[in-house]
């Protein structure tokens, strides 16, 4: 297959767009498409202070790369979850991010919040001791990440928190919520979640890209990301729905994109309204973060943080480290793909 | 025969077939992988020849921290 623009060998064929491109023209298309999404959904402007949540995976590193190429000012946030498995997953992730930052965004700040260092336990440890998630760490992990991301973004004065969620992520969540008619969740699923009641503004600039498109961009750009999945992600529901949607996509190219885009259109037309009796948010009596119930928030309850310990997790005590203060990390090097010949 | 490597597993298929057909034969969803032949990204209509080094890259990765 040949590139539509220059007739050289294509590296990707996007059947849903009827578009095949070579590495060079694909990189340009990907960056331009991201800018169009930023503008279409009014995500942020040139003056924004952007905090990019980076995991070491393809999506978040590609996002930081694209925002930098587009000239936006952005810093990174990495949350050390203490998930290792037999692949040194968290250590490997931090090593990848550090290499990326030094190479691509050396002037940016990389905030590192190490969960064990801050709260005394790793995510797998707290998950074993807690009923949330019934032994699977994903629920404890999600709660902790959302809390830390929101809090750091708000307290450090960032205008917006950007995550690398792609179309496959969004379509899988949409399918799950639709099958269970979770109307409250459907009302809140969007490329932009506005700031409210102490919650940071959140944006997903990659929400219209297929997962294979962000992976292709990362390879074309030579981004050395963590190829492995989180050891706890294997067999999870999101991956199950992604597999189902891919089967649909094989038979009907564009199915995933249409599913998501038409949902957004219906949502914009008012088909999925938030409940009229909007839940009132309270300030957590320990940390001050917004919570739906009076008293301690879910995060403080899960981590058993009491008022006596509140100073430990005050904003200034979160170990936020700049780029010069990293610990050296022994990381397993994932097999890389040489795309230098593209 | 062509050897295809994916996540430390090796599969063998007959040569002179397209990458897409090869994926079908070994039961891998074409949407779930990127295809590299001789260390270059290619589209799935590429015909695999004897001696090609074929490696697949999983599209899904990560799963934490976003």
Number of domains of chain B: 1
Give the oligomer, counting copies of the same chain as homo and different chains as hetero. Answer: heterodimer
What percent of residues of chain B are in strands?
35-45%
Percent in helix of chain A: 40-55%
Any idea of the CATH topology of chain B?
A: Ubiquitin-like (UB roll)
Reported CATH architecture of chain A: 3-Layer(aba) Sandwich
Which strand order does the major sheet of chain A show?
A: 5-4-3-6-8-7
Mean pLDDT of chain A: 86
In short:
Chain A is built from 12 helices and 10 strands. Chain A has 342 residues and is α/β, with parallel strands linked by helices.
Structure description:
The complex is a heterodimer of chains A (342) and B (66). Chain A has one domain: Rossmann fold. Chain A is 41% helix and 10% strand. Chain A has twelve helices and ten strands. In chain A, the strands form three sheets. In chain A, strands 5-4-3-6-8-7 form a six-stranded mixed sheet, with helices on both faces. Chain A is globular. By secondary structure, chain B is mainly β. Chain B has a single domain, classed as Ubiquitin-like (UB roll) (Roll). In chain B, the strands form two sheets. Chain B has a five-stranded mixed sheet with strand order 2-1-7-4-5, covered by helices on one side. The mean pLDDT of chain B is 91. At the A-B interface, helix 2, helix 9 and helix 10 of A face strand 5 and strand 7 of B.
Set out the fold topology:
The complex is a heterodimer of chains A (342) and B (66).
Chain A: E1 12-14, E2 19-21, H1 23-40, E3 50-53, H2 58-69, E4 74-80, H3 89-104, E5 110-114, H4 115-119, H5 123-128, H6 137-155, E6 160-162, H7 167-179, H8 183-188, E7 192-193, E8 202-203, H9 211-220, H10 237-251, H11 255-268, E9 282-283, E10 290-291, H12 298-302
Parallel strand pairs in A: 3-4, 3-6, 4-5, 6-8
Antiparallel strand pairs in A: 1-2, 7-8, 9-10
Chain B: E1 2-6, E2 9-13, E3 17-18, H1 19-26, E4 33-37, E5 40-42, E6 47-48, E7 54-58
Parallel strand pairs in B: 1-7
Antiparallel strand pairs in B: 1-2, 3-6, 4-5, 4-7
